[in-house]
Amino acid sequence: DFSVYIKNTGNSDLESLIYKLRKDYHKIEKGLTLKPRKDFFGKKVIYNIILNTQLLISKSPHNEEISNAINVLTHYLNAHNNAPQLDYIKEFINKNEVKITPLSSPLIINPSITDKCRSSYAEVLKTRKSVRYYQNKLVDIGAISASVELATLTPSVCNRQSWRVHLIQNKNIINKLLSLQNGNTGFGNAVQNLIIITGCINSCLSPKERNQLWFDSGLFSMNLVNSLHSNNIASCFLNWCEEKDSNYKIQKILNIPPYEIPTVYISLGYYEQDTEVCHSPRKSIINTLKIHN
Question: With the CA atoms of 151, 153, 154 and 158 taken in that order, what torsion angle do they form, in degrees rounded to the nearest 10?
Answer without folding.
Answer: 140
